C-alpha cells in the first residue's frame, strides 16, 4: 500500500514541475521541545532545519527535526500546490525508531517508518483573518487491533493578529473520531504562539517564538521557546 502511495507522490512531482521552481528560503531553528498538534515528541531540545523551493503555484519543502539526546528524529518531504487562497499539500513523514536499524527506503510491511498525510489550508491567504487546516492520513496510519487504516483526521483553526509589534496566533485543533490522536472526538491542541523577527539584513533574520500549548484531551500543558536563523530570497 505504501509503495503505491509513494509512487503516486513522486509521479505527481515530475521533472517538468521541478524545473519551474527555485530556492526560496532556508531556516534552522532550535526548539526547547518539539510539540506537534498537542503532543510532545522527544524529551530534549530539538534542532529543526528546513529548506523550501517555490514557483508560481508549486513548492517543495524539506523539513527535519532531531533532539539533542536522540530521543526523537523526523524527516518530512512536502510538495504543495497553491490555488488562490488555498494550499494543498502531501506530507511524507519519516520517523525512524530510536535504537533500531532504520532505512529511509525500506517500505516493507511492519518495517516501514513512513506515513502519508494530505492537507488543505488557507494559511498563506490574505483575504480571511480566520485560518483553517484539514489534514487526513492516507497511508502508514494503521489500527494494530484491526489491521485497517485509521485515516486519522485533524482540524485546526487560527486567528492571527499583531499587538505592540508582536505577532500573536491563538489556535485550536481537534480530531473528529478514534485514531492516532485520541480514542474519540476530542480537542487535542490549543494555545497561543507569540513571534517576532529581528532583521539582520534584507534577507537574513532571527525569529523568536514563544508558544503555550494545552492538550485538553490529555490535560497536558507545554511552554516552549524557539529561535534560529532564517534566510529568504524575498526582501
Helices, by number, come to: 2
Average pLDDT, all residues: 90
Largest sheet report:
12 strands, antiparallel, barrel
Shape: globular
CA-based gyration radius? 18 Å
Helix content: under 10%
Biggest sheet: strand arrangement: 1-4-5-6-7-8-9-10-12-13-14-15
Which regions contain 5 or more consecutive residues with pLDDT less than 50?
Answer: none
Number of strands: 15
The secondary-structure class comes to mainly beta
End-to-end separation in angstroms reads 43 Å
The helix-strand sequence is HHEEEEEEEEEEEEEEE
Strand content: over 45%
Protein architecture, described:
The chain has 235 residues and is mostly beta strands. The protein is 6% helix and 55% strand. It has two helices and 15 strands. The protein has a twelve-stranded antiparallel β-barrel. Strands 2-3 form a two-stranded antiparallel sheet. The mean pLDDT is 90.
Amino acid at each position: 500500500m505504501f509503495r503505491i502511495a509513494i509512487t503516486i507522490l513522486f509521479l505527481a512531482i515530475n521533472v517538468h514541475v521541478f524545473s519551474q521552481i527555485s530556492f526560496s528560503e532556508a531556516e534552522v531553528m532550535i526548539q526547547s521541545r518539539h510539540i506537534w498538534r498537542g503532543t510532545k515528541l522527544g524529551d530534549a531540545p530539538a534542532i529543526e532545519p528546513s529548506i523550501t523551493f517555490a514557483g508560481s503555484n508549486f513548492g517543495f519543502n524539506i523539513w527535519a527535526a532531531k533532539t539533542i539526546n536522540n530521543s526523537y528524529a523526523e524527516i518530512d518531504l512536502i510538495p504543495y500546490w497553491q490555488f488562490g487562497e488555498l494550499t494543498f499539500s502531501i506530507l511524507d513523514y519519516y520517523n525512524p525508531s530510536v535504537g533500531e536499524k532504520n532505512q529511509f527506503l525500506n517500505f516493507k510491511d511492519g518495517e516501514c517508518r513512513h506515513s502519508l498525510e494530505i492537507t488543505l489550508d488557507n494559511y498563506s491567504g490574505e483575504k480571511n483573518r480566520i485560518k483553517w487546516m484539514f489534514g487526513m492520513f492516507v497511508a502508514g496510519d494503521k489500527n494494530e487491533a484491526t489491521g485497517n487504516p485509521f485515516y486519522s483526521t485533524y482540524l485546526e483553526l487560527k486567528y492571527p493578529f499583531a499587538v505592540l509589534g508582536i505577532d500573536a496566533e491563538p489556535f485550536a485543533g481537534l480530531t473528529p473520531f478514534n485514531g492516532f490522536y485520541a480514542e474519540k472526538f476530542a480537542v487535542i491542541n490549543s494555545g497561543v504562539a507569540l513571534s517576532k523577527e529581528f532583521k539582520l539584513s534584507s534577507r537574513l533574520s532571527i525569529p523568536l517564538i514563544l508558544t503555550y500549548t494545552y492538550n485538553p484531551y490529555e490535560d497536558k500543558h507545554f511552554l516552549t521557546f524557539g529561535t534560529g536563523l532564517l534566510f529568504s530570497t524575498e526582501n
